[in-house]
Amino acid sequence: MRDDVPNNTPPKYLLAAETAEGAVITLGSADSWEELLDLLAGQPENDGVPPMAYRLIRTAETEAAVKKKPRREYFANFRGAGGAGREDDGTESAPWWGLDHAAANLAARRFDDLPPLAVREWIRIRHKEPFTPGALERRKRIKEAVAEYVFLAMTAALVIPIVAILAYLVVKAWPALSFSFIFQNSEDSQAGGIWAPLVGTFFLVWISLIISAPIGVLAGVYLNEYARDNWFTRLINLAVVNLAGVPSIVHALFGVGAFVLAAGMGQSLLAASCTVAIMTLPVIIASTREALAAVPMAFREACWNLGATRWQTIRTLVLPNSISGILTGVILQVSRAAGETAPILFTGAALFTSFPYHLDQPFMALSMHLYAICTQLQGVSDSVQYGTAVVLIGLVLAVNGLSIGLRVYLRSRKKW
Amino acid sequence: MTDGWRLFKRAAEWLIEAVVRLCGWSAILFIFAIFFFIFHKTWPLFAEGFDLREFLTSARWQPTSTVHPCYGILALLVGTLAVTGLAMALAVPLGLGAAVYLSEFAGGKTKEILKIVIELLATVPSVVWGFIGYMVLGPIIIAVTGAPVGVNLLNGGIILALMSVPVIVSVGEDALKAVPDSYREAALALGASRWEIVYRVLFPAAKSGLLAAVLLGVGRAIGETMAVLMATGHAAQIPHSLLDPICTLTATIAAELGEAPRDGTHYRVLFLIGVVLFVITFIVNLTADLVVKGIRTEKE
Prior knowledge:
The complex is a heterodimer of chains A (416) and B (300). Chain A has 416 residues and is α/β, with parallel strands linked by helices. Chain A has 3 domains: 2-132, no CATH class; 135-173; 180-413, MetI-like (MetI-like fold). Chain A is built from 14 helices and 6 strands. Chain A has helices at residues 33-41, 99-107, 135-173, 179-183, 195-226, 231-245, 248-262, 269-293, 297-305, 310-321, 323-339, 342-345, 366-376, 382-413, and strands at residues 13-18, 24-30, 53-58, 72-77, 96-97, 122-127. A 6-stranded mixed β-sheet of chain A has the order 2-1-3-6-4-5. In chain A, strand 1 (13-18) and strand 2 (24-30) form a beta hairpin. In chain A, helix 5 crosses helix 13 and helix 8 packs antiparallel against helix 11. Chain A is elongated, with a radius of gyration of 40 Å. Chain A starts with 12 loop residues before the first strand and ends with a helix. By secondary structure, chain B is an all-alpha fold. Chain B has 2 domains: 3-49; 61-299, MetI-like (MetI-like fold, Orthogonal Bundle). Chain B has a two-stranded antiparallel ribbon. In chain B, strand 1 and strand 2 (70-71) form a beta hairpin. In chain B, helix 7 (181-189) crosses helix 8. The longest helix of chain B is centred in the N-terminal third of the chain and has 45 residues, at 3-47.
């Protein structure tokens, strides 16, 4: 039948190249599908600038117009490198290596026993570097990027409002903050002047520290150096965990029952300090134990071999080597004790007292003072309230900053 | 060295060891002391035939009524659960998300800074959070929702969420860090993306640790006193909407113990609420501890 085709009719098959500029250049023509694939395989494997894609076109007898979309799209590496593209729909990430390989693969394809291309249909073979992401891989990457941004947004949703609130507090407190606000006492609490509560907090922290630091450190020493791994030790650990989890108001009830009433201390600085000391004990125990556990066992063994007793080893070797961790815990205790309100509410803190403080008398504390001027007393100016809050936060953050700084400094001096 | 000196040293060593032992046992001692002293105060109630059933099931909390005082803590219990539930609904997704971000995505400086910021957040005193709820968040809630009062369930929930987030983030991050790197490497070798590693590998592997993080957050939220006292409005009623003022177990004790006549029924009932709180937090913390222990034995 081919003989009947007049010479001036357009060829049945065309091979065209798409350039980067978007133009389509006809490279040659063929009378059959096989011939067209031979033509494709014979294209130079370009190591300069390869075309964006090749088009395998079947034109009509009378016109060269084609449909807008290609019937199928394949991937090949025109420079002759790559893996094997196996999927019909071209989603495979690895391209065919080279044009002759592409031609061989296309020739092997049956296209569901239909002729390779109907009239006005075409196939695109796109250039693709090996190891470029395919559709599946791209979807995965998009998901991963979305996940990262979602998690980042969640973190930001936590951190930004809090930082904004703290900044807002400082701005609102600015008019009140002055040297005399902190270091002077006012006759009534309306006018500001937080020296008395500040000193009260200072006393509370130190007295509770004197009580809880020795007990807590020695308890940590016991748990790490003396205790065997048995049910009793596990019970102690459980008690430490639960002591840390007991609500602060329950500690307050304990303080009222044990120190204020049973021990006869009354509502006083001493009773409040004892309550706070027991409340903050687990912090010291836990951090001491961790600090001691970080001292290598070989140190102790060396010391025991020299004939030292257990306590001598602990005193001269273990404690000096773990002092940074212990101090971190102690400082954390300080910051917690300074901020607590509920445990001192009924055990010794007063709305208003005057200097000097005595161990057996009620006292003023900064946290209690903030609670009082915010909810109990009327007519305290906003800036005084904000100022008190900011001083309290500043105090706690400063103590914590000290703890972090100390940790970093001592860690840098560590010798093992 | 004389024998006397040696004997003295041995005695001193023995004495020191005894002191250390005593301190080591102090935690158990204090837990029992806390329980004893609080329970001790409530004991006369039962001698008087106090109606424990009404205490737990009635929603009427009218301790100061002169005609017929009622001591039902159901409304307080519901208030505590509602505000804790709301706080956890906000804090758990965000906290665990932040933990995943810190442990798997963030690197270098960003990670260090975020960790320090979150560590510092944990130290902001609860009375300051209460102050923020009362002075800052309250007016914002009134302006946005048009509620008559700004101190309510929503306010308390948001404040508690912000307070319990540091615990959830740091414990959650520890749990994710505890998953061995070989798990991640195996998943990477199979072609998993980082999101797939988080979702398919880390979440199942760190399940118990993340649960412990949530439980510790719950424990902290239930026990929180000053913040909820100042931010929830203190009205003993069962809430019907997010904008209702509520009252919690902790806040009730803090607000009323100072005014209750010593050794009266009201005073003793407040101690009984303390026992209830002690038991609830004990169970929550014990569960969290067992969950963590479970992971450890699994790993071994």
